[in-house]
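Can anyone check this?
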Amino acid sequence: MIHPRLRRYLPLASCVAVLLFSRAIGLAQEEGGDAKPAGGESIFDTIKNGGPLIMLIWCAIIGTSITMVTFIIQNIMSLRKNKLAPPPLIAALQQTILNGNYQEAWETCNANKNYLANVLKAGLSRLGRGKEAVEDAVAEHGLREATMLRTRNSYLSVIGVVSPMIGLLGTVIGMMGAFRVLAGSGISDPRALSGKIGEVLLATASGLFIAIPAFVSYYVFRNVSQMCIVHADDVVNSLLMDIPFDELSGVQVGENFNAGVDQGMSGGARKVSMALTTACPICNGAVTPGVNPCPHCGSTLDWQS
């Protein structure tokens, strides 16, 4: 089953893979000159006449090349700093958290699906449990998101290992057929025999043609993903740096939002002096005396005259 996010890249990947594969075969034909096996068969005819097993192996080689190109395109599109931590999202979260609108910041993260939003959302969900709980949540979900990114990239390494083996399998099976022909007719036509051997070696060449860019892409994207993850983690830590965790004890941010108004207060309201303060005791946001509820966190305030 192909991941839904990868399906949109399949048409482009298929075109690129077919072009590269056709070019590889064209180069092999140019190297071989005009030599053709007995009967004047082309390489595609040889594959077609090689039997179900040979055709299955070549389908696997073509499918592997399409998969490799798909993952390369997907990594190019997703492994960027602006994708993991979009600047507009960073600016919006900075302003929201600076104003003490932690529930609004959680809702913003919930509406966005990227590394920064997912990790910060987990930290904000434990805001009322203290700084240590928030840091643990950020570390836990950061590791989870990073593992998902690295897992997608690790498939390129798998392709780099498997594709030469598929090509070698095709070569071995083809060589077995060539030697059966040799055992039956001898070496009366060495030119045809050498051409047959050259064509079955094309399977190994095709496997290596897939493996080399797969390995190179894997190591390149591994380093790129690490740099992007470090950048996104720095952004998350900077957003959480100035949050007054001690003042937010008991606050629950998330789907079951609770501003902590029931802790130690009768009637569910926080007492606030009209003359001495214009800061919400829950989120520390600026509040105009007399305004109810708090425009930042939604807490009910009981203003004293």
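Reply from J.R.: I decoded it. Residues 84 and 115 are 5 Å apart (CA to CA).
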